[in-house]
Amino acid sequence: MNYVKPKKHLGQHFLRDENIAFDITNSIDKDCKNILEIGPGTGVLTKHLLKKPDLNLYVVEIDTESVLYLNIHYPELKDKIISDDFLRYPVENIFNNESFTVIGNFPYNISSQILFRVLDYYQQIPEVVGMFQKEVAERIASKPGKKAYGILSVLLQAYYDIEYLFTVDEFVFDPPPKVKSAVIRLRRNQTSKIDCDEKLFLRVVKTAFNQRRKTLRNALSSFSFDNEKLATDIMTKRAEQLSVADFVGLTNAVRV
What is the largest CA-CA distance in the chain? Predict the structure, then answer.
């Protein structure tokens, strides 16, 4: 049965370079047993993942045309295609609460939301390998002091070591995006839990970067600090100058 490939959806650009697809799927940990692919589309990554022995692969795809295409062309995925939204689906149940790797050529317009969702499961997700818009990838991997360093950088680097693997040109996609792409890898670091209130940490980080041009004394004026903390050098800095550890210390200094 012939079936026309699905149209672009949700900001998705279909990768058509098999060498790049192989390089992406070959970047996952060799000991990985469970893997969840997000937004497989027409299966350009899927076909390479299916060649890996003893890999327990599930895919989650919101687009119904893509789900139909995958069912027709990859019968070995029978009962392992989840036709739903990764941002809402209870993914902890897919692998019976076992750890799993996340991989995908992520739709650019929801890639940040995907990573925030990954953070909800950081204890269960030891690794993420994904394609992002190059600017977003650089932001995620950026270090303190760099212009690209921001909210996602801090929140993800609190729990993951991040590697920028390689840049991908526009012409290898259908349709070609207007920007370059990049593949990055996130691997869980040794932090089992940050040494502060996680919800307050998130608020402090977001508030600091929402007014990133201001010093922390002004950007965090909605929080209460004692006079001793307000007099320290760190309060004269801007958000982009602080490490994860600095933000943890700030969070612990908030008077609640």
Answer: 73
